[in-house]
Amino acid sequence: MTEQFEPIIIGFTCNWCSYRAADLAGTARLKYPPNIRLIRMMCSGRMDPTFILKALSEGADGILLTGCHPGECHYLEQNYKALRRYLMLRRTLPQFGIEAKRVKLVWASAAEGVRLAREITTFVEEIRALGPLNWKDSRAYNNGYGVAEVEVSTEVPA
Amino acid sequence: MERITIDPITRLEGHGKIEILLDEDGNVANTYFQIPELRGFERFCVGRPVEEMPLLTNRICGVCPEAHHMAAAKAGDAVYGVDPPPTAKKLRELLYMGFYFTDHTTHFYALGGPDFVMGPDAPVAERNILGVIHKVGLEIGGKVIQARKYGHTIVEMLGGRKVHPCTSIPGGVTKGLNEEERQKIEDMGRWGIDFAQFSLQLFSDLVLGNQTYVDLILGDIYTHRTHYMGMVDENNHVNFYDGLVSVVDPDGKRLGKYAPHEYTDWVAERVEPWTYLKFPYLKKVGWKGFVDGNDSGVYMATPLSRLNAADGMATPLAQEHYEKFYETLGGKPVHQRLATHWARLIELLYSAERLVELATDPEITSPKFHTVPTKTPTEGVGIVEAPRGTLTHHYWTDERGLLTKVNLIVGTTNNYAPISMSINKAAKSLIKNGTVVNEGLLNMVEMAFRAYDPCFGCATHSLPGQMPLELTIRDADGNEVDVLRQFC
Amino acid sequence: MSDNGKPKFAMYWASSCGGCEIAVLNISEKILDVDAAFDVAFWPVAMDAKYKDVEAMPDKSITLTLFNGGIRNEENAYLAKLLRQKSVFLVAFGSCSSEGCIPGLANFSSGKDLFDTVYDTISTDNPEGIRPQYNWTTPEGLDIHIPVFSPTVRTLDQIVDVDYIMPGCPPESHQIAAVVELVIKALNGEAELPPKGSVIGAGGSTVCDDCPRERNIKKITKFVRIHQVENIDPDLCLLEQGILCNGPATRNGCGALCPQVNAACIGCYGPAADVADYGARMITALASVIDSRDPEEIESILDGIPDPGGSFYRFNLAHSLLHAAKSAWVGD
């Protein structure tokens, strides 16, 4: 019997809404899968696509990005920046062979603990269905294999 | 079975390797000229927007990016079915003439010239641009540097940068010319005409005036009777930027002229398992192997080919030299590869004359240098003459103008078969029954190769002017018997 | 050091176009300073030393090596390691060795795709599907070789330790001249070399800083393709005209040459300082100036960038955090 694939999800959560929602879920003892590792940012607008790319290249199978509802950003407008970055990233990732669905943006307010827990659970299953990304291990090019699969020694002669 | 390996061939743009195989009697059984490089532009340009192609294909070659830039620009026009305004075409051609001027100058003075100015038997240390300057004087050296600078300045003024210009887009160019710039270019062009004539005179004095060199040029070692190809205008005069591609057979008879979109009827490329580069040949004649003759599809595309494939030059001074060229060498077509150096200087003169023609054209400073394309993009072919040969860019796009397919036939690639044959013939003529392979031999093989100015030939601007070679001679067991080197 | 006491200099091209070599030679008179200060030990474009001559040199005997061109095959990788061993200072010279450059775009495809495309084009006559063989026996019975093609394009610092990076495609000649002068002064004890790992021959800001165009608060409502613009305004920021310009993410030092001839910056000078991923920086820069909050409208605006992967990673794909597309790797 094969082990079920357990996705590694990184959740970039905004301090003012979704992080509090996650807290709320916790205090209400609402279960959500341990696959997600939460990283708290002060605002979803703090999300630099670099974070997502780094996470994906180093072992994450999926990224969940959460922020305040449009119009409710604690810093007024920055969740719109997050939205625009997210939309651009979703168009760029498929060119790398990474399914756009591996990155998801969810708006959630501090009161929506139940909903957030559900979104996380749903996302974990969506990623499980997609399968592992395994980016770090598939970097076989570092071993220097050519198309004809002949290994050539690149040791410098003594 | 002995084997002589020349690896790597240095002083080219890129990498090359020659394997010479000797049979038991010490005669050359075969030679293999291998190209060990591949980057795959035909693949990774797929998915890119067509207006980026003049910028992306620049990076095929940093010695002649202007050639790719122009072929890509014309292919982009064709993809959109847009005809750029006359000023745009003239601005592009003006940039192109500036480039040709610098490129042909550097090849003659730093690569090809030294063989004649110093002589093929001159000491190795002297057979380079420095030796040339010592022999003919510092003043001339200064002129050569000036010529290079002028050419690159013109490219920068019209193209934005000295290397990898950026101003051509589908439908025209991004920038026009003002009167001040125009005057500068005209002045540089006029200086260039004098310089080109001076260079031709130098060739006449030093080379044509020397019987040994004339014998060398006319000799059989460097002669191949092949087909020739080159772009011509509506008067069948040589044109680098636009026109139809004329193809003539080894007797000089024109087989036809083809428009860009017809190139696949004329040219096909073969693949060999021992090299990354492909071998183009004439489809209508067919591939018969690495051989000369009317029945062989092997063709050459170089300055010599262009003169052979045309009926004349479009500018008066160049035309005079064109006539003198064929008169001296016994009529058309000329098959002696070393005559390419002379043909190159005639083209140098033409490029300067054409530069002045364009710089003094009343339309050249017009602000109308771009037409916005309106049609849906589909497919198009752009052909120009690169200094090293006919250059073809063929693009297919989707309705947004993103490339779906790319086919390129690049300048020197046209000559891959002829260069291989020239190396083969030189090696066979010079290595017989185990004669000692010496420095003289090395240079003679070099000269066969160098006449083509392979775009492997960028060393041009540097001080040493010759191709360093090393021959390793091994016995049947692979033990090294002797190593001969030719340094700069 | 060579016999005459002059430090040794080397310049090598891996998988390159030759433009870096031309840029070096375009420093014109300054090349004589190089000639006076150094002994050129290895420079395949210009002189005769062979690989075996380099192999025979003692370790660290070449003072300065300028390495341009990307690592596309095993021969390139071998030369990178060899020259690292033999050099005191190894400089990743130009965009190819620093970040992969345009040929790095091959990292969006697999080697098989690449070969299948190249050896089967519309004009290629290859009914037997012949592909280049790394080892081949000629009819006369001898074995000949061509270098093994790697699955992806790699940068120099992905193979060996690099001392300095000189960005640009190619680096502009005036920058090369400045670096040459600095190095010669440093060797004479008249100046200090920057710390190891520094970017040299370039600025510490973005191309926008060098660009003379007029810039206002940006509110982009549309992206247009440059050839669709009726009249490009010669004075206004190109991005404000809706023309996608890579200036905001790109390091300065070139003098913003392309925008000055009405062409968009395409990013050839590599990432600006402290940028971990060039494409990510392009995304953040554009996200800040797109003037819309509505997802549908934003998507419509983004339709104006039909090739985000290419536009955001044009020169930097091989050096990006992801390195290459999934399909490019062996074993996937």
Written description of the protein model:
The complex is a heterotrimer of chains A (158), B (488) and C (332). Chain A has 158 residues and is of the alpha/beta class. Chain A has a single domain (9-143), classed as Rossmann fold (3-Layer(aba) Sandwich). Chain A is built from four helices and four strands. In chain A, helix 1 crosses helix 4 (113-130). Chain A is globular. Helices cover 41% and strands 17% of the residues of chain B. Chain B starts with a strand and ends with a strand. In chain B, the strands form five sheets. A five-stranded antiparallel β-sheet of chain B has the order 3-2-1-15-16, covered by helices on one side. Chain B has a four-stranded mixed β-sheet with strand order 8-7-6-11, with helices on one face. Chain C is α/β, with parallel strands linked by helices. Chain C folds into three domains: 8-103 and 153-187, Rossmann fold (3-Layer(aba) Sandwich); 109-150, no CATH class; 207-319, no CATH class. In chain C, helix 2 (30-37) runs parallel beside helix 7. The chains are: A alpha/beta (158), B alpha+beta (488), C alpha/beta (332). Chains in contact: A-C, B-C. The interface between B and C is large, with 101 and 81 residues. Strand 9 of chain B pairs parallel with strand 6 of chain C, so a sheet runs across the interface.
